[in-house]
Amino acid sequence: MAKMWAGRTDGVTDRIADDFNSSIAFDSRMFRQDITGSMAHAAMLGKQGIITPAEAETLIEGLAGILADLESGALAIDPSCEDIHMFVEQVLTERLGDVGKKLHTARSRNDQVALDMRMYLRDETDAIMQKVRDLLEAILGQAKENRAVTVPGYTHLQRAQPITFAHHLLAYAMMLLRDLDRFSDCKKRTNVSPIGSCALAGTTYGTDRRFEAAELGFADICRNSIDGVSDRDFCVEFLGACAILMMHLSRFSEELILWSSWEFKFVELSDAYTTGSSIMPQKKNPDMAELIRGKTGRVYGDLMALLTTLKGLPLAYNKDMQEDKESVFDALDTVKMCLDVMTPMIGTMKTLPQNMKAAAQKGFINATDLADYLVKKGMPFRAAYKIAGQLVSYCIKEGTVLEELPLATYQSYSDLFGEDVYGDIDLDVCVKKRISEGGTSPDSVDAQIRYVEEVLNHGEHIH
Prior knowledge:
With 463 residues, the chain is mainly alpha-helical. It has helices spanning 15-21, 24-27, 31-47, 53-72, 84-96, 109-145, 165-190, 209-215, 225-230, 233-259, 287-310, 324-347, 353-362, 367-376, 381-398, 407-413, 421-425, 427-433, 442-457; strands at residues 150-155, 158-164, 192-193, 220-221, 267-268, 350-351.
């Protein structure tokens, strides 16, 4: 079949080259954006007198009919067409005759595909942001239920200081709030209309690019037509936001995997989000968390693929840029799927507070508080630090914990120790004493919960 671009060439390509060149297998998902964009373009052409108002109305009605037929299933996308733009124009011409051929006046597939991608990513960014909000709600629910549960806080994967489980979960909430900010900020630069840039140099027709942009909900237009057709920064930025989000989900997944192991046993994941072993009947494997962790590398690859594609391209449009779609589509599909699994997995997660508290007691994570006790009694910190370390070493040798040492043992290291030491090193007290803003005390954790709720309901997180 001769192509609609036949003219300079005969429009006949080798079948293998045809398949290699075709993008309809993946860009067909943008049919709504393509048709909506064409409707706005037809309205602009009619408004400007480039075509008659009657022709514009005929085009808009024809396009609306194609959209309705595609959505109902009455019309199927023809995979033999080169891309979604050619398919829509071909069907429109078949239905309307010569009037259909007027739709492509004052535009190119170069600015048309850039328009479709911006509209599509604008919609998908909103969808991802809503899924992030849903995950934040699940985290908030767990944080509220576990605000008084003491757990070891870790550095270097070594037990470090006592915190509440809610405080730990809220660290992920803060990461996700930044993810929301990134997607929101990315959307601002996506929401700029390239249509009217044409192939690269604009057009001789008296178009109204701002009218067309406003019709499609864009906040502005690309100010340089060459940049309008060659810019894919918004795709790279979107993939960057996806990669960072996946990094956060992967870190969370890694902790879920650790926490649900027999070695930790801090949480139990719902059977709905785990699998069994084909040979070991006792196993309950955190496969969903592991897959999220694994798919993070896939999204990183999508980002690197597009960066590599773009790094050596001269201006303006090059066919290499067709490669943007599969990377972007794969990343957004992966992110949405991971969020869809992560949210209910967190929401249904069962915590095991007794195991968390036991781990905190065995980790000597109140040693810093023991040193602080001596400092408050007048001892220099470094001296207090050394005595606290010696007492920990003694406990390890004797198989005991700081809370159970006799007062006489304490006083053999320093006469500053009194009965009040036991109150200062009680794990729950240690948690409550960390009153600095952002810390792990109950009041601070409650403030963090309120902050996350406030941002979700009203504002932006910029930290």
